[in-house]
Amino acid sequence: MREIDLSEVTEKIKETLIRINHELDDSLVTAFNRAKDKEKDDLSRSILDDIIQNQDIARKGSAPLCQDTGMVVVFAEIGSDLFYEGNLDEAINKGVSEAYTDGYLRKSVVNDPFDRINTKDNTPAIIHHKIVDGSQLKLNLASKGAGSENMSKVVMLKPSDGIEGVKQLVLDTIFDAGGKPCPPLIVGVGIGGNLEKSALIAKEAVLRDLDDESDNETIRAMERDLYEAINRLGVGPMGVGGETTCLAVKINTFPMHIASLPVAINIQCHSSRHEVIVL
Ligand code: SF4
Question: What pTM does this model have?
Answer without folding.
Answer: 0.96
